[in-house]
Design brief:
By secondary structure, the chain is an alpha/beta fold. Helices cover 23% and strands 26% of the residues. The radius of gyration is 20 Å and the shape is globular.
Length: 272
């Protein structure tokens, strides 16, 4: 079957949509001191992030409701000969970029599982959603916005991600998405749903700036000014600090603890 690529970035006027958040202005936002240089092991092009103050306007954020849609590989939404791209990795390209179509098309196949045919759910996962940073900063705000609008909202995500990211279940439960509101899918399988919702991102990918509403939802806890300073270790082997040994000397001199937060339960991470 020859598929046609559609994108929520273009708007899908024939489908029902719900505005979850109106337009919002951010800025001018001055960058933090220093600049990020991608290391040689990073797949990103070696470049400096812009250092000028940024001012931007976030458009309204919508949820697109697609009736009778199918879901393959945990995040590829399709119906008939149409694939609906929910893309962050290719966000700097036109939505019709052939790489998206080839990638998404290759993930579709297998018998259609009808167990969720009566369910309505938001697609939580996306291509870059298997790491903690992407989950918290980019995917979680979409789920929170959808849950604020629809009290009985459910999320669908791959069982592989659920098992791989140990803190994901407790994090979602803390924000009201307990196990009874999570629908898990298996790899290499296609599922039919009564309705699938694609929610636009609360994040400007080209400028790497989060939507202010999304940040406020992630900060429901208020603490006194912390007396503990932490250096948070990066678990992955890329984008590391080249002169970490020298940094460690400075940390020790000032009594700053070095800690890998990802190894701790969500409650302890928040407390720290």
């Amino acid at each position: 079957m020859a598929f046609r690529l559609r994108s929520r970035l273009d708007g899908l006027p024939e489908f029902r949509s719900t505005i979850l958040m109106g337009p919002a202005q951010v800025g001018p936002v001055a960058p933090r001191l220093g600049a990020l240089v991608f290391d040689d092991a990073s797949p990103a092009r070696p470049e400096l992030r812009p250092t000028e103050p940024i001012e931007l306007m976030f458009p309204a954020v919508r949820a697109w409701h697609i009736e009778g849609a199918c879901l393959s590989d945990g995040f590829v939404v399709h119906r008939g000969a149409e694939i609906f791209a929910d893309s962050s990795i290719y966000a700097d390209h036109a939505p019709s970029h052939p790489a998206i179509l080839r990638d998404f098309e290759a993930r579709i196949g297998g018998a259609v599982d009808e167990r969720f045919a009566g369910e309505s759910a938001m697609v939580f996962h996306n291509e870059g959603g298997g790491t903690w940073g992407h989950l918290v900063a980019q995917n979680l705000p979409r789920a929170l916005a959808y849950g604020r609008r629809f009290a009985d909202a459910k999320l669908v995500l791959p069982r592989e991600i659920w098992g791989k990211v140990a803190n994901l279940g407790p994090l979602l439960a803390r924000f009201g998405f307990g196990p009874e509101r999570i629908l898990l899918t298996e790899p290499d399988r296609t599922y039919r749903f009564g309705q699938l919702a694609l929610v636009e991102f609360f994040y400007d990918f080209p400028r790497q700036i989060p939507h202010p509403a999304g940040l406020s939802w992630l900060s429901p806890w208020r603490f006194p000014k912390p007396e503990l300073a932490l250096f948070i270790e990066r678990a992955a082997g890329t984008r590391l600090i080249a002169n970490q040994d020298e940094v460690d000397v400075v940390l020790a001199r000032h009594g700053i603890a070095r800690l890998r937060l990802g190894a701790l339960p969500v409650a302890e991470q928040i407390a720290l």
